């Protein structure tokens, strides 16, 4: 799926937040930034939103909003395991976004 101009703008708005960029940085190397989880593999399944909230030092609703924005921009994908939601970077979409930005500038 190619990024449209609107998609690029959405992704750039998502990246405007220091906290969201920090989340993306942590998710790039999850084992270096998060402890092992009881459910879900840090790399294969992603990082539990609770661990991201704790590391960021914010409430669960606040981190959920950040992750929702990143997800809507196509930068992360979410996966439910039991009652938890796990997040990981969508590397394919990020690569397409980079190409789309370079094409526009």
What do you see in this structure?
With 105 residues, this protein is of the alpha+beta class. It is built from 6 helices and 3 strands. The chain has helices spanning 5-15, 18-28, 30-33, 49-56, 60-72, 91-104, and strands at 47-48, 76-81, 84-89.
Q: Using only CA atoms, what is the Rg?
A: 14 Å
- CATH architecture descriptor text: Orthogonal Bundle
Rounded mean pLDDT is: 92
Task: Please estimate the helix content.
Answer: 55-70%
What's a quick, concise take on this entry?
The chain is 58% helix and 13% strand. The protein is an alpha+beta fold and 105 residues long.
Helix and strand arrangement:
Elements (H helix, E strand, L loop, with lengths): L4 H11 L2 H11 L1 H4 L13 E2 H8 L3 H13 L3 E6 L2 E6 L1 H14 L1
Antiparallel strand pairs: 1-3, 2-3
Helix pairs in contact: 1-5, 4-5
């Amino acid at each position: 799926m190619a990024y449209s101009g609107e998609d690029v703008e959405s992704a750039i708005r998502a990246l405007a937040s220091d906290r969201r960029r920090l989340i993306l940085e942590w998710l790039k190397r999850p084992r270096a930034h998060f402890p092992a989880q009881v459910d879900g593999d840090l790399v294969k399944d992603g990082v539990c939103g609770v661990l991201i909230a704790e590391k960021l030092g914010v409430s669960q609703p606040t981190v959920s909003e950040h992750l929702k924005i990143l997800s809507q921009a196509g930068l992360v994908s979410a996966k439910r395991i039991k009652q938890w939601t796990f997040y990981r970077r969508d590397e394919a979409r990020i690569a397409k976004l980079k190409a789309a930005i370079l094409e526009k500038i």
